[in-house]
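Key result, reporting period 2: structure in, sequence out.
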């Protein structure tokens, strides 16, 4: 495998294709913030603004400014989005709405915890980029709200009846693994370590189930036991594989090779478990007992699932030398670049049917924005550069 060629491929795709697309088409020059609903060629087809998409784009451009190059256009893009979020994104107490209209008026109340987590990430990176103390304070205060909601993320918007089947989900401890490192420069060290250890325990001891062949389930009862229900049987391979590179990063940071090894092995298990043996690609949702999943889109092939798999398999190889990770990286790389990259216009398709045909030609929407593609290209580029340097 030519790491030099691959490093250049990922770098070029990020800097010459994907970032210019978002810089050109997503910024709302009149009202601030970003459009995320972009057609195949970048035309705006809906002007609603989703808070987690706004936060992700602020984070992305601030992060690249901090880690890649001090490009003014990246900082300007991140800052104007941050100012829009600061002004309109929350209710005054850092309860972040789900969506706003174009001008910044609230459309959907603050029911979604991921509005909060991505606002935290956004202002954490923006504080680093600018040295602005107000941005740092917004990140810290929002993180406090996230932690206070950990046991009941939806609060009064929770539709489930309490006491009958109390479930907890994988996605919040998973994202906290990443979020804690994102804003570590703002947190007390002992507090940070406590949060990290709690998250590692949840991800690697509670949701990871060796008795099910080493897979991760999406929901368990609040006692930590399995639930034989739609939610309790749900497996989301993309989530599980994405979480493993967060864990690998933590294992590297904490000097815990056994944690890295376990995360690498789970990555390999989930790749094999989630791979569509008939048409290729990784399933979106699965049922651990093989029953029909409740999500009708279960067999779609999604951009983020495959991009996160590229990151995890590549990091798994880099950190452990396990050749199977490299084999999976090659397989998923070939599928991803063949099916998701648009040969005619910049940015990538997001949604394919099971056979790998484009289902929706959009480049952004309510759930796809300026995040997984550029973050994945950046992560893979960085690891491939390091591999290139160590293999020569």
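The corresponding designed sequence is given below.
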């Amino acid at each position: 495998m030519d790491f030099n060629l691959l490093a250049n491929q990922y770098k070029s795709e990020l800097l010459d294709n994907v970032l210019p697309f978002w810089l050109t088409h997503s910024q709302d020059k009149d009202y601030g913030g970003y459009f995320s609903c972009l057609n195949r060629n970048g035309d705006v087809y809906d002007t609603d603004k989703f808070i987690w998409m706004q936060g992700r784009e602020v984070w992305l451009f601030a992060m690249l400014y901090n880690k890649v190059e001090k490009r003014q256009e990246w900082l300007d893009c991140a800052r104007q989005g941050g100012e829009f979020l600061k002004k309109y994104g929350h209710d005054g107490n850092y309860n972040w709405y789900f969506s706003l209209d174009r001008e910044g008026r609230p459309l959907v109340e603050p029911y979604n915890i991921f509005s909060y987590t991505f606002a935290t990430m956004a202002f954490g990176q923006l504080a680093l980029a600018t040295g602005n103390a107000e941005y740092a304070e917004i990140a810290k205060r929002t993180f406090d709200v996230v932690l206070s909601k950990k046991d009941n993320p939806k609060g009064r918007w929770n539709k489930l009846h309490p006491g009958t089947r109390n479930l907890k989900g994988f996605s919040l401890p998973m994202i906290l693994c990443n979020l804690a490192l994102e804003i570590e420069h703002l947190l007390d060290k002992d507090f940070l370590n406590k949060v990290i250890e709690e998250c590692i325990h949840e991800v690697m001891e509670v949701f990871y189930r060796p008795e099910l062949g080493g897979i991760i389930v999406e929901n368990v009862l609040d006692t930590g036991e399995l639930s034989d229900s739609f939610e309790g049987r749900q497996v989301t391979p993309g989530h599980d594989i994405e979480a493993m590179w967060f864990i690998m990063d933590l294992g590297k940071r904490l000097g815990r090779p056994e944690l890295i090894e376990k995360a690498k092995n789970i990555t390999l298990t989930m790749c094999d478990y989630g791979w569509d043996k008939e048409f290729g690609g990784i399933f979106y949702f699965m049922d651990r007992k093989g029953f029909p999943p409740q999500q009708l889109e279960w067999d779609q092939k999604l951009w983020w699932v495959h991009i996160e798999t590229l990151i995890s398999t590549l990091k798994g190889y880099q950190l452990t030398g396990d050749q199977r990770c490299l084999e999976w990286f090659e397989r998923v790389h070939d599928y991803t670049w063949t099916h998701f990259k648009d040969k005619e216009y910049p940015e990538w398709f997001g949604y394919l049917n099971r056979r790998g045909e484009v289902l929706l030609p959009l480049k952004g929407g309510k759930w796809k924005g300026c995040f997984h593609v550029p973050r994945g290209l950046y992560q893979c580029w960085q690891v491939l550069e390091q591999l290139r340097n160590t293999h020569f």
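The chain has a mean pLDDT of 96. Residues 49-150 form one domain. This case is discussed further under Risks and Mitigation.
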